[in-house]
Amino acid sequence: MFCLDEDVLPYPGQEEFAPLCLAHMDESCKKEYWATLALRYCKGIGVRTIAKLLKHFGSAYEALENRRQWQELGISQACISAMGGDAWREGAKKEWDMAAGCDARILLWNCSLYPQRLRQLPDAPALLYCKGDTSLLGGPAVAIVGSRNASSQGRDVAFQLASALAAAGLTIISGMALGIDREAHAAAICQVGKTIGVLGTGIEMEYPVSNRDIYAGMKKTGLLVSEFSPRAPAAAVNFPVRNRIISGLSLAVVVVEATVRSGSLITARQALEQNREVFAVPGQAMNECSTGCQNLIRQGARPVFSAEDILCDLEETLRAWQGGPSPKIARKPAARKFERPKAETPKDYVDDADSLDGDALAATEKLAPNDESGRVLAYLRANKAAHIDSICQMLDITPAQAGSLLIGMEMLGQVRRLPGARYEVCHGNAG
User: Which of 128, 166, 304, 370 is most exposed, with the fewest beta carbons within 10 Å of its own?
Assistant: First the structure.
């Protein structure tokens, strides 16, 4: 029997929980949250495995109650044994205490408000911490992403696109970074559709500090979400991981400005894998800030020159969603409520690396330590391509550790991800 503490509480069944902060949860809801944390901190169980268990059993508690059936789902006996031990309790209790000390609402996987688009992903987050208007998760949304070191023109384009789409009723999703992300949030926050910020930190962390005005506005009229523990600090590994949520919540992803090694391209790739539409703003010819967008267009992304382009392409989806005419664009230009920060790139800023040089390169290289990345490259050269599970076994590491390592190697241009969570060596690293 899986217990919250020492006492056995009633089985929660398949109830659909409303998102509440921990202090306001009833005992059955707390039990489901604790079961989710147990899965999260069990060694050898990664995000994909947790999602598989949730989809099969319907809740984290039910999954733990029936862990003897896990082998039928291809989960190793080692993971089953680890779940029966106590090693996971320390990490789970630490996050529980953090949640108890904050006012964030906890959106569990079996909550009625958990977005179906996100729930369908093979790596759907087991929970989301939320601050703001959670009803925004139920509407049609478009992600706008791009460089944190965006040009003035790129920022203006992001602002106008976000303003027009939000005025038409679409929710704008981005990652709360500087540059393009900030412009997208600032433009949409006062419009009909509002905006959702997906954090690469814990929900209690306001990062970067230059965006504190945006954070304040989002808590009042928008929504902030994070899958990380409430006080998780900014770490380079978190930002590429959170990008799957940005694309997963969206009908389409619009890349406004991106270099050839921008983290925004990871969001675009994930959008394609999730069967989302991908749009890219072409930008000026031979402008380094737009080379990533231009490459996306060469690979099949749809070029976008105005918000009308996006609405026209999504018209059938939006009409089906709303059961009526598709949204219309407000022609009145949006007024700028939030000022652009004077210091666009604080010295301690960590994000998903628009261009991998200097501090950004150093931060990203931490994702792919030389000894482990060298072993992976040698393994892939010998095997042409390999599934992430094979890489886990070869390195004797968990799926979460392998995912962080491979994301770092991908951002450094060492490996390329193939469909089905398989990887191969990039050209130039094959020798």
Answer: 370
- AA letter at 345: T
Note the pLDDT of residue 370.
54
Alpha carbon separation from 338 to 157, 211, 332 (Å, rounded): 16, 10, 18
Scanning 306-420, the segments in alpha helix (DSSP H) are 307-313, 315-322, 358-365, 370-383, 388-395, 399-411
DSSP string, 198-262: E-SS-TT---SGGGHHHHHHHHHHSEEEESS-TTPPP-TTHHHHHHHHHHHT-SEEEE-S--TT-
β-sheet bridge partners, residue 422: 387, 418
Scored b (16 or more CB within 10 A) or e, 102-130 reads: bebbbbbbbbebbbebbbebebbbbbbbb
Encoding tokens for residue 149? 């070191």
Q: How far is 42 from 185, CA to CA, in rounded Å?
A: 36
- Helix residue ranges, H only, 121-221: 152-167, 180-188, 212-221
Are the beta carbons of 254 and 310 closer than 8 angstroms? Answer: yes
Q: Which residue has the tokens 């814990």?
A: 202
Q: Which residues of 306-333 are buried (b: 16+ CB within 10 A; e: fewer)?
A: ebebbbebbeeebeeeeeeebbeebeee
Instruction: Give the pLDDT of residue 363.
Output: 39
Kindly give the parts of the chain with pLDDT less than 70: 1-18, 322-334, 342-371, 399-401, 404, 407-408, 411-413, 427-431
Provide the pLDDT for residue 322.
61
Q: Tokens for 425, please give them.
A: 């060596």
Q: Is the separation of the CB atoms in 364 and 373 below 8 Å? A: no
Q: How far apart are CA 241 and CA 399, in angstroms?
A: 13
Neighbours of 6 (CB within 10 A): 5
pLDDT of residue 333: 54
